[in-house]
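Fold this sequence, please.
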Amino acid sequence: MFSQFYGHGGRFRHARRGRHGESAWSGGRHGGGRGFGRFFAHGDLRVLILHLISQEPRHGYDLIKSIEELTGGAYSPSPGVVYPTLTLLEELGHVTVTADGAKKLYDITDEGRAFLEANRGPLDALLARLSGATGERRAMPRIMRAMANVKIALRMRLANGSLSEAEADAIAAILDEAANKLERA
């Protein structure tokens, strides 16, 4: 019964095709995420969301934060990725939705649990990969913060008015020096 969801290479798929020909579990128009999509192969993000919901009922925002924590801050899926995925999981009968004030609370169904159990091996491999990535990416939040600080400082400096040639040269020299130091680090 669940073999229709399991494709080659340990990836999750669904036999139904979307209007653009993509598989509902293949990433298609609902998928992946910016900049981190290669880390998650087709369907991995969906099965991860289902796994997180299996641990406890969750809101969409909770899922976003949980995935961000699992990836050591290196990836935070956008609501434009998470909510269509939750809708798909509901359509597949893997989750139910209940109103929780102004929010929606997602809970796994027996069919969703059976799907996860039938695909335990690939799910465990995904979780192991995420665990390893978290260890490798512990420094990522500090680096991302530092990059954001540089970006903000540059924007603020440029917003103060036009730069003289000397000021532009000085800023470019600072950035070039930082780039050279990073290459050697």
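Residues 2-137 form a domain with the Arc Repressor Mutant, subunit A fold (CATH 1.10.10.10). The CA atoms of residues 11 and 43 lie 6 Å apart.
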